[in-house]
């Protein structure tokens, strides 16, 4: 075969020119999500949401005429990989801001890096320690996060229990960052709501059966069970609960239960289960006057149209992060210090998971009102009273 | 027989020395020194492990736990008790040596898969302890606030500084280990791998030798763990799980079991593949990784270090045929 | 729509719930429940362990992709039964058949092409294959877990105060079935006897005209089929997703070692014991440490009986690994 020399040269020149010119001036945002690996079922909807939103924003002309350039890096939920990715984003890619990571563990792992390199970050993980410097008692300067902290979910659950006159409860949690974070808050806040913990059981993230733990709880005086886990185990534990005939002991799930897929997988066992959820999970059920009705319905419609799969809470966290960041960039451009300041001053931002009011002392910006107490009825969410 | 010469090591050391200076000027590989820090840290573990597996012929799936012990002991001593980081590192190595002795002495009497299971069980138990003893380890959330390293007021606080620190330690350990292999004790080791019975008959205390190598490799893993913790300023249990133990095994097997240079090559390759190169494949990453491993295993059953021997044999075959 | 408390099917009536079903729970019924649950989980571990043994006996390797067979069994069944809507009686054998095909591919593409393999090289090949299979499964079935309908409904059976899911009975039933079929196979058929001969001494076996390669293929077929069966029957209990295999492989490996590698009664006993320790440990002592108890007991046992409970020390001596 003879290679046409001219076209070969032309191609080389063209590619070279493309590389040198690079894309037109764009605002560089990078997201670090665990798109594969053990937490991939969380990172996946986040990635899809982020890509969909950036597409929408760019189609509408970008931010002040500048297009957003978003690249999603896969952390695989691993602390070392997240560390490497974040340092690369900061020192090599010179980005304006970082969104993610997905998991509490990897988020906590990059706290020192973010603070050292002074770059605004919007984490999509739940643990309150991500934005709470235990030494100073104040938030880390550069870190914000969109998911409601575990403590808020715990308070929503405990308040509901208190209303129902429950005083003795059993805890179940998975031995992962998510489970441990929730368990810590459950233990810490119980006494404030007059609750006694009569059992504190755990299981592994890949366990096949939790009957033993539930049987132990069955032998105690627990009047309700709180379970803190994500993934398949949060469904298996429900089925075991049903099979053991424990429906008389109300079951509370964490906000990690927020996907209709879970109700479906529970094969009927989720009926009557309570969980605190952000508004987005129950968009159709919200009353017309609800402040979040419009944004949540819009997201639901767009996501369904593009990906044709049920929404997950975690996608909503990415939604909140992207939109708040875009709002901050609107007046700050790529000035990191200003983006940070703008983020801290966000008030009344209507998002998927609540109305955010950031401040110097609160880099999460949500209260327990960000949760609706929801119950599963007839295979769907219903607002609980 | 293996003979590692001085010249290649010197050349290698020089290359390592100039690498950050070159990489810093090329945008695409600007972050490679950062990756190389982890490569150096992993090399410390695989050098010891290769001595254990390739020379002493003992399989271990427990070295992720020794690595974790080093990291956690260092972190706990420096953050909770304010002990000097270098002293903490020494303490971590001592603790790990004791644990390795306690585990190794009875375990190394086991053979083959039984030994693999025993070390795997040990690894999982340690991993569970990291997760459960929240008061000490911070549980699955991990622990932060681990100080960086400094020496006589010189802070190893940038990527390049830490790079030189890690690689100086790694090269020192490499040379030391090479010396062991080429010493009379090393000869006993190699004899042990060829035939345990014959080695015993020659008057070598086989059981003792195995335990010594096991403890030595565990101490190196501990050192690596401490270096990891002080660089990341954060540790959590999932960095020390079974997956990591298996990854170490892959590094050694891929590079070539019977040669510690192979361990270094394997560590380079696997680290760069998993930390940097394979990311472009996104969701296909795992498939590509598996396929690469499979192809290398099938075509180079003795690892990459076995490549020259294979090529030589092939050439001889050609010239004869 | 507002939730009404009467929807909670307690049969007792709405709030308050102080008078719930608690008084029926006695310690004996609790204990019985732990035993039932432990035996069910244990049966699955036993099946995985049997799969390990079949391949080990012929090849001396531990097939790290064994857990992947289980995962594939469950997920292929999901596609055939739930998505394609095939009848259970058709979908079950079809799913097992398809996974068996993967077993054949594994042997043909990863094991057989390796020339002069060492045991460790072969193990690395199976690790590579497991990474590859896991990656492919993620692409095919996605990242979320999948469910299968229980074979005979989900109405639990009450048994002296304890509860048995109908699916548990299927699990026990299939374990018995597998044991019976394997016993008949090894005792009554030529192929089975040939396989046993290979297990005892491959060299001698090939001298008397047994095709060892064919026996290796057969061992992969059998072990894939058993793995797939385990996956299909466990999915209605615990769901299935692409990365479940590794955990089951580790448990199955522990069970095989506990019982004595290569021994089929050992695998059954090892699996059941492991399941019981986990369940009783979780129920009576600490659920956070349940996996650690099982492994500690395994370690202790190995220190006293280095060839497992029912393993044959004589046979394990002539094995390379």
General description of the model:
In chain A, 41% of the residues lie in helices and 17% in strands. With 385 residues, chain A is an alpha/beta fold. In chain B, β1 and β2 form a beta hairpin. Helices cover 69% and strands 2% of the residues of chain C. Chain C has helices at 27-59, 66-83, 88-111, 119-141, 166-188, 190-200, 202-207, 212-238, 245-259, 264-285, 290-304, 313-318; strands at residues 157-159, 162-164. In chain C, α2 (66-83) runs parallel beside α4 (119-141) and α5 (166-188) packs across α6. The longest helix of chain C has 33 residues, at 27-59. Chain C is globular. Chains in contact: A-B, A-C, B-C. Chains B and C meet through α5, α11 and α13 of B and α4, α9 and α11 of C.
Task: Give me some keywords for this one.
heterotrimer, B: 321 residues, mainly alpha, 14 helices, C: 321 residues, two-stranded antiparallel sheet, 12 helices, 2 strands
Report a brief summary of the structure.
The complex is a heterotrimer of chains A (385), B (321) and C (321). Chain B has 321 residues and is mainly alpha-helical. Helix content of chain B is 73%, strand content 1%.
Helix content estimate of chain A? 40-55%
Q: Can you tell me the CATH architecture of the largest domain in chain A?
A: 3-Layer(aba) Sandwich
The neighbouring-strand order within the major sheet of chain A is 2-1-3-4-5
Q: Indicate the mean pLDDT of chain C.
A: 88
Report helical residue fraction of chain C: 55-70%
Largest sheet of chain A, described in full? 5 strands, parallel
Largest interface: A-C, 54 and 57 residues
Structural class of chain C, please? mainly alpha
Please tally the helical runs of chain C, counting DSSP H or I stretches of 4 or more residues: 12
Shape of chain A: globular
Q: Strand-residue fraction of chain A?
A: 15-25%
Largest sheet of chain C: 2 strands, antiparallel
Strand order of the largest sheet of chain C: 1-2
């Amino acid at each position: 075969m003879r290679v046409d020399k001219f076209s070969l040269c032309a191609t080389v020149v063209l590619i070279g020119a493309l590389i040198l010119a690079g894309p037109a001036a764009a605002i560089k945002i990078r997201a670090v999500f665990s798109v594969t690996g053990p937490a991939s079922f969380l990172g996946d909807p986040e990635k899809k949401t982020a890509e969909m939103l950036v597409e929408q924003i760019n189609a509408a002309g970008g931010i002040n005429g500048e297009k957003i350039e978003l690249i999603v890096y896969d952390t695989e939920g691993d602390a070392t990989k997240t560390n490497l990715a974040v340092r690369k984003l900061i020192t090599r890619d010179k980005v304006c801001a970082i969104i993610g990571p997905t998991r509490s563990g990897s988020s906590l792992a990059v706290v020192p890096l973010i603070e050292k390199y002074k770059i605004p970050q919007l984490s999509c993980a739940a643990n309150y320690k991500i934005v709470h410097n235990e030494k100073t008692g104040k938030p880390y300067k550069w870190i914000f996060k969109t998911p409601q902290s575990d403590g808020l979910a715990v308070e929503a659950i405990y308040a509901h229990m208190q209303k129902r006159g429950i005083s003795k409860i059993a805890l179940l949690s998975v031995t992962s960052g998510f489970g441990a974070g929730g368990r810590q808050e459950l233990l810490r806040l119980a006494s404030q709501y007059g609750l006694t913990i009569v059992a504190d059981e755990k299981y592994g993230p890949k366990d096949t059966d939790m009957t033993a733990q539930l049987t132990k709880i069955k032998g105690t005086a627990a009047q309700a069970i709180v379970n803190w886990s994500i993934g398949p185990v949060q469904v298996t534990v429900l089925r075991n609960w049903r099979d053991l005939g424990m429906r008389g002991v109300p079951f509370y799930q964490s906000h990690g239960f927020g996907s209709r897929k879970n109700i479906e997988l529970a094969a009927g066992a989720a009926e009557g289960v309570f969980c605190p959820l952000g508004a987005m999970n129950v968009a159709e059920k919200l009353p017309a006057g609800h402040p979040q009705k419009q944004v949540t319905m819009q997201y639901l419609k767009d996501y369904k149209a593009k990906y044709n799969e049920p929404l997950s809470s975690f996608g909503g966290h990415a939604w909140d992060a992207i939109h708040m960041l875009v709002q901050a960039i609107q007046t700050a451009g790529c000035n990191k210090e200003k983006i940070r300041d703008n983020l801290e001053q966000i008030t009344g931002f209507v998002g998927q998971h609540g109305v955010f009011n950031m401040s110097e002392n609160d880099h999460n910006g949500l209260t327990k009102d960000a949760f609706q107490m929801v119950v599963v009825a007839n295979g769907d969410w219903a607002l609980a009273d | 027989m293996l003979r590692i010469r001085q010249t290649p090591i010197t050349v290698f050391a020089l290359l390592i020395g100039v690498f950050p200076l070159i990489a810093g000027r090329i945008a695409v590989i600007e972050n490679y020194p950062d990756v190389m820090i982890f490569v150096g840290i992993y090399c410390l573990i695989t050098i010891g492990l290769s001595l254990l597996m390739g020379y002493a012929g003992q399989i271990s799936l427990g070295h992720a736990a020794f690595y974790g012990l080093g990291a956690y002991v260092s972190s706990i001593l420096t953050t909770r008790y304010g002990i000097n980081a270098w002293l903490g590192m020494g303490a971590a190595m001592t603790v790990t040596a004791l644990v390795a002795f306690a585990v190794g002495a009875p375990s190394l009497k086991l053979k083959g898969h039984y030994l693999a299971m025993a070390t795997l069980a040990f690894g999982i138990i340690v991993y569970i302890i990291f997760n459960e003893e929240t008061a000490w380890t911070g549980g699955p959330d991990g622990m932060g606030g681990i100080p960086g390293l400094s020496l006589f007021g010189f802070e190893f606080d940038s990527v390049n500084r830490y790079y030189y620190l890690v690689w100086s330690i790694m090269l020192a350990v490499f040379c030391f280990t090479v010396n062991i292999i080429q010493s009379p004790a090393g000869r006993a080791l190699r004899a042990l791998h060829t035939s345990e019975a014959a080695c015993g008959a020659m008057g070598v205390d086989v059981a003792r030798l195995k335990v010594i190598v096991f403890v030595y490799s565990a101490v190196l893993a501990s050192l690596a763990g401490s270096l990891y913790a002080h660089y990341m300023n954060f540790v959590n249990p999932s960095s020390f799980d079974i997956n990591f133990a298996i990854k170490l095994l892959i590094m050694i097997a891929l590079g070539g079991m019977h040669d510690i240079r192979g361990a270094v090559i394997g560590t380079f390759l696997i680290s760069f593949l998993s930390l940097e190169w394979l990311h472009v494949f996104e969701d296909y990453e795992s498939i590509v990784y598996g396929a690469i491993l499979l192809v290398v295993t099938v075509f180079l059953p003795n690892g990459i270090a076995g490549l020259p021997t294979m090529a030589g044999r092939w050439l001889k075959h050609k010239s004869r045929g | 729509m507002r939730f009404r408390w009467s929807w909670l099917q307690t049969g007792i009536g709405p709030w308050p719930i102080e008078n719930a079903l608690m008084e029926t729970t006695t310690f004996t019924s609790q204990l019985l429940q732990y035993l039932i649950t432990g035996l069910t989980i244990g049966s699955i571990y036993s099946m995985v362990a049997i799969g390990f043994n079949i391949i080990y006996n012929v090849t001396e390797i531990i097939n790290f992709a064994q857990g992947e067979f289980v995962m594939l069994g469950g997920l292929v069944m999901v596609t055939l039964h739930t998505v394609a809507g095939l009848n259970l009686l058709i979908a079950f054998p079809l799913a097992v058949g398809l996974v068996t095909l993967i077993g054949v591919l594994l042997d043909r593409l990863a094991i057989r092409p390796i020339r002069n393999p060492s045991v460790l090289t072969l193990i690395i090949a199976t690790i590579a294959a497991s990474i590859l299979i896991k990656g492919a499964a993620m692409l095919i079935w996605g990242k979320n877990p999948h469910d299968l309908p229980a074979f005979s409904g989900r109405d639990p059976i009450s048994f002296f105060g304890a509860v048995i899911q109908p699916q548990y009975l299927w699990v026990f039933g299939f374990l018995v079935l597998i044991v019976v079929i394997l016993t008949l196979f090894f005792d009554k058929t030529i192929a089975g006897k040939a396989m046993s001969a290979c297990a005892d001494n491959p060299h001698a076996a090939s001298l008397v005209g047994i095709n060892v390669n064919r026996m290796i293929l057969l061992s992969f077929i059998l072990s894939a089929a058993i793995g797939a069966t385990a996956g299909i029957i466990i999915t209605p209990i615990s769901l299935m997703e692409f990365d479940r295999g590794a955990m089951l492989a580790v448990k199955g490996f522990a069970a095989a070692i506990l019982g004595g590698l290569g021994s089929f009664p050992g695998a059954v006993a090892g699996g059941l014991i492991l399941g019981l320790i986990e369940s009783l440990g979780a129920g009576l002592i600490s659920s956070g440490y349940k996996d650690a108890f099982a492994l500690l007991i395994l370690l202790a046992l190995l220190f006293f009986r280095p060839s497992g409970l029912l393993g044959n020390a004589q046979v394990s001596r002539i094995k390379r690994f």
